[in-house]
Design a protein that fits this description.
Elements (H helix, E strand, L loop, with lengths): L5 H9 L12 H11 L5 H15 L4 E3 L14 E3 H7 L4 H12 L1 H4 L9 E6 L5 H9 L4 E6 L2 H13 L5 E5 L2 H10 L3 E7 L5 H12 L5 E5 L6 H12 L5 E4 L4 E5 L6 E4 L3
Parallel strand pairs: 3-4, 3-6, 4-5, 6-7, 8-10
Antiparallel strand pairs: 1-2, 7-9, 8-9
């Protein structure tokens, strides 16, 4: 991860009030910190995600990559090896495990937005499917819809899901905005969303806004909010506009909690 602004990162690290649950006035946030951020992911999820990541790091195939957003800051050229994509762009296992804990958390199940059969988990930016697998294993009874704009990556991800038994995953090869319009038209309700693609601030804000239209209660997680100054500006614009009652920043993720009855607030935590 490229932290674009060292001073902002230092300030982020020096904020101690939410690192261990002390000084947090919201019971919801305290519960999130203690049961999700500082908890342990199920061993079988970590094991399976690590296995897939290892497979991709050893995959020497070359594929033609279509970049529909800002493109990779680490890799240039359309022809790329799968192992290089895994090394440069795939979500680290530790962060994938954190996503799994967010989906599994009792705090989510306790809300009306939690595990209803008609709700979906949405991912924008499948890549090789490493984060997708974590989401699928964390909630095997829920449908996971993951959207990838690059045909070659979507094909690999679909094969990875089949090989690892994630039969609750639907891989959609489509541009993000088009996919969101389809989801809205079908009246699908998103309970959890992970945005990890395009990497433009304006696009991030647009995607979050459209996802919010699918239901009243949900959690939206944006990856790489500090990848560039533009991305962080996009994240901050979402927070300023009040799209969710509660926002939270880790060093990598921006998290929006659209859940009824929780105390509004904005938090930064060391994670």
């Amino acid at each position: 991860m490229n932290l674009y602004h060292p001073a902002a990162t230092v300030r982020h690290l020096l904020i101690p009030q939410s690192t261990a649950g002390h000084g947090v006035h919201s019971p919801f946030i305290y519960d999130f910190l203690t049961t999700v951020i500082r908890n342990k992911t199920d061993d079988h999820i970590v094991r399976d995600v690590e296995r897939l990541r290892s497979e991709m790091l050893a995959d020497d195939r070359s594929i033609s990559v279509t970049d529909l957003g800002a493109g990779s800051l680490r890799m240039k050229g359309a022809e790329r090896k799968v192992k290089d994509i895994a090394r440069a762009a795939a979500l680290p296992v530790k962060q994938a495990a954190l996503l799994a804990r967010m989906v599994q958390g009792s705090w989510l199940r306790a809300q009306g937005s939690g595990r209803r059969a008609d709700n979906i988990i949405l991912e924008l930016g499948t890549s090789l499917g490493i984060s997708t697998l974590a989401l699928a294993l964390a909630a095997p009874e829920q449908r996971v819809v993951t959207v990838e704009g690059c045909p070659a990556l979507a094909e690999i991800a679909a094969a990875n899901m089949a090989r690892h038994g994630a039969d609750n995953v639907t891989v959609v090869n489509m541009e993000f905005s088009e996919a969101l319009e389809k989801i809205i038209a079908e009246r699908a309700k998103v309970s959890f969303a992970f945005i990890d693609g395009n990497h433009r601030g304006e696009a991030l804000a647009q995607y979050a806004g459209r996802i919010a239209e699918t239901g009243e209660e949900m959690i939206i997680v944006a990856d790489d909010i500090r990848l560039t100054k533009d991305m962080y500006s996009g994240w901050k614009s979402i927070v300023r506009e009040g799209l969710a009652a509660v926002s939270m920043e880790t060093l990598r993720f921006g998290i929006l909690f659209r859940i009824n009855g929780i105390t509004p607030g904005n938090y930064r935590i060391r994670c």
